Amino acid sequence: MSTRLNRDLPLMTHTPENAPWREIVPFRRIDSSLGLVSDLIRQSLQARTAQGDLASFLDHLRAGSGKMLRPGLVLLAGECFGPLTDEHRRVAAMVEMVHHATLLHDDVIDEGLKRRGRPTANALWGNERAVLLGDFVLSQVFRMAADLAPAVARVLAQTATRVCEGELRQTIQKRNWQLSEAQYIEIITEKSASFFGGCCRLGAMLSGADEERIESLARFGVLAGIAFQITDDLLDIAGDENRMGKTSQSDLAKDKPTLAVIHLLGTIDSTGKARVGALLDSAGRSRRELVDLLERQGSLRYARRRAADYVTQAAGELQDVPSGPAKEALIETAHFMANRTV
Q1: How confident is the model at residue 13 (pLDDT cuts 50, 70, 90)?
Q2: Mean pLDDT of the chain
Q3: Cβ atoms 49, 73 nearer than 8 A
Q4: Helix axes 194-206, 86-110, angle to 10 degrees
């Protein structure tokens, strides 16, 4: 089945009334396009030979729709410069599929048991099949990318490469409790924020924006993405696992330094650092104590403030972008990314 959107391809036939992206207020203006993106993803993850176990794997993928932040940024960035096209929606589907593949692999690395309120693929079928499922999703993206303009395909490939490099760098820095805030920002820029920047760049490119404005959108996406990841790390520490719908505290359990912990270690003496080290080594048993310490030292508050600072910087990058509902929706989305509680 072709992945192109056209009049012969029945779309938006499976979008549920409670689609997760509808929780993001600024996404309501692109609701119909996100529905088309969601339907295209489902169709792309179908296999003509799917039956038995393979069919159950693909059903699991198609049922795991998230808030579609990355596709939403592609669409809103594009809409800043003109009407959305089928190409916008197709690229939006592809970035969400790349993201979905990274989540499948992340859950294997972090031994996550729950994602979006459902058992992870590795919890259901084991690590080997979960990794291969992620590879299958990426293979579908490669197939779809063959129809893209070379410049667009190049940005998509560069974006995916930076994400992988960032993940590798974070793995190298496990248990490095001397990591500085600047180093932490560099890591999350590569592993997470660069993806958001690539999404905004792609949306603007597909709308024919000039190079200066494309760069402005890309910088906006990176800065908003840094805010997103700082907040995501906060939720891993202090979030409610039941509300989040995923296994919490995974970054602590896997010895990944986060901004709140980096701040904490920079505000206490050597005795306090030894105590924090013991808490980090037994994070699963001492989570409440660690969270209380982070709260008392102002470390959670500091991380929230830094996330807000990055949103302010992100909004400043849009000064030369035409005013209108799409631009306002982008800024509102950045605030959502930094202030979400789940």
Answers
A1: very low
A2: 84
A3: no
A4: 170
CB 196 within 8 A of CB 175: no
Superfamily of domain covering 26-339:
Farnesyl Diphosphate Synthase (1.10.600.10)
Whether the CA torsion 206, 211, 216, 222 is positive or negative: it is: positive
Q: Do 170 and 191 contact (CB within 8 A), yes or no?
A: yes
Q: Do residues 42 and 34 lie in contact, with contact meaning Cβ atoms separated by under 8 Å?
A: no
Q: How many residues are recorded in the chain?
A: 342
Question: Tokens in use for 179?
Answer: 């990591």
User: For residues 17 and 68, what is the distance between their CA atoms, to the nearest angstrom?
Assistant: 15
- Provide the pLDDT confidence category of residue 19 given band limits of 50, 70 and 90: confident
CA distance 5 to 44: 11
Dihedral of CA 71/335/342/303: which sign?
A: positive
Write the CB contacts of 40 (distance below 8 Å, at least 6 apart in sequence): 3, 5, 11, 89, 90, 93
Domain layout of the chain by residue ranges: 26-339
In this predicted structure, which of 28-42, 58-72, 185-199, 258-272 has the lowest mean pLDDT?
Answer: 58-72
Cβ pair 106, 232 in contact under 8 A: no
Q: With contact defined as beta carbons under 8 Å apart, do 240 and 246 qualify? A: no
Round to whole Å and give the CA distance between 138 and 54.
16
CB 264 within 8 A of CB 299: yes
* Radius of gyration of the chain from its Cα atoms, rounded to whole angstroms: 20
Calculate mean pLDDT across residues 26-47. Answer: 89
Question: Six-digit token pair at 246?
Answer: 């995923």
- Range list of H helices, 193-324: 194-206, 211-238, 241-244, 250-253, 259-265, 270-281, 287-296, 299-316
pLDDT digits (tens, 9 = 90+) for 288-335: 888 889 999 999 999 999 999 999 999 999 999 999 999 999 999 999
